[in-house]
Amino acid sequence: MASFTKELKKITKKVKRFLSGERTIYTQRMGDLKVAKTDDYALVSYEKDGAFDYEAYKKIQEAGNRRKLNNIFVQEELISQIAQRIGPQGGIQRILCHGTRNGAEQKLFKKYFGGVEVLGTEIAETATQFEDTIQWDFHEAKPEWLGHWDLIYSNSWDHSYDPVKLFKTWESCLRPGGWMVVEHTRVHEADKVNTLDPFGISFEGLLSFMDKNTSLRFEAEIAIHDDLNRRAAFFRKPL
Ligand SMILES: C[S@@+](CC[C@H](N)C(=O)[O-])C[C@H]1O[C@@H](n2cnc3c(N)ncnc32)[C@H](O)[C@@H]1O
């Protein structure tokens, strides 16, 4: 009887959520960590005794960075297409890339945008080994970055512990009319989350997530045909 009442309560809660338009949210365990899942996304929470454990998050990211230090995820073709899509009329002079490991994307942006200032953030202490890279957690903004950047690019946003904070921070760093280009592949999907890549969402989910949580407007998408189903979504800060 007790378990029947418990089940009934659960179902009632789900129906109420459904009627209020809220997505189904449930949690499951991943080792010591919890994963929150909605219909659209999954997010690992690095909790210890009920509080966010930033040191645990950073340690995991740094270990992952060291393990994969020589890997390059970014694809030249995608950066070349980003440059084509924004074009010489885009007025791009300052580009900020987030989660850049060994600095490969900074080189590509310099190649395809020519004569621009490019900076990359990287949480791991290995950042200092690479050109145009600073050791910095991309959830935070330096005061001088606010409204400063013409273009922000990342393929590493799935390493975020708090994607609402993340995209709001990035938005605040764009000048009016500035672009945020977010790369999406099948490894950014919700079923791919793990302790190193804590946030996962579908491409369409990402568009509505951005719409719901920022003032950025979706402008365009591009795709290259590789085995990762690589795409990029272009968002623009209103003038
Ligand atoms: C999947 S790799 C991508 C690296 C690079 N963008 C590329 O295309 O090769 C993600 C990188 O983001 C870094 N990272 C993870 N969390 C971060 C954070 N909070 N702030 C800045 N960098 C972070 C990781 O250390 C790692 O080097």
Please characterize this protein's 3D structure.
The chain is α/β, with parallel strands linked by helices and 239 residues long. The protein has two domains: 66 residues, no CATH class; 161 residues, 3-Layer(aba) Sandwich (Rossmann fold), CATH 3.40.50.150. 31% of the residues lie in helices and 28% in strands. The strands form three sheets. A seven-stranded mixed sheet has the order 8-7-6-9-10-13-12, sandwiched between helices. Strand 9, helix 5 and strand 10 form a beta-alpha-beta unit. The protein is globular and about 70 Å long. The relative contact order is 0.14. The protein binds S-adenosylmethionine. The site of S-adenosylmethionine has 21 residues, from helix 2, helix 4 and strand 7.
* Main pleated-sheet profile: 7 strands, mixed
Hey, roughly how much beta strand do the residues contain?
A: 25-35%
Bound molecules: S-adenosylmethionine
Give the H and E element order: HEEEEEHHEHEEEHEEHEE
Question: What's the CATH first level of the largest domain?
Answer: Alpha Beta
How many extended strands? 13
What is the fold-level CATH name, i.e. the topology of the largest domain?
Rossmann fold
- What is the radius of gyration? 19 Å
Question: What is the CATH superfamily label of the largest domain?
Answer: Vaccinia Virus protein VP39
Please state the structural category.
Answer: alpha/beta
Tell me the CATH architecture of the largest domain.
3-Layer(aba) Sandwich
- Fraction of residues in helix: 25-40%
Judging from the principal axes of the Cα atoms, what is the shape?
globular
How many distinct folded domains? Answer: 2
Number of helices: 6
On the 0 to 100 scale, the average pLDDT is: 91
Instruction: Report the end-to-end length measured between terminal Cα atoms.
Output: 60 Å
Strand order of the largest sheet: 8-7-6-9-10-13-12
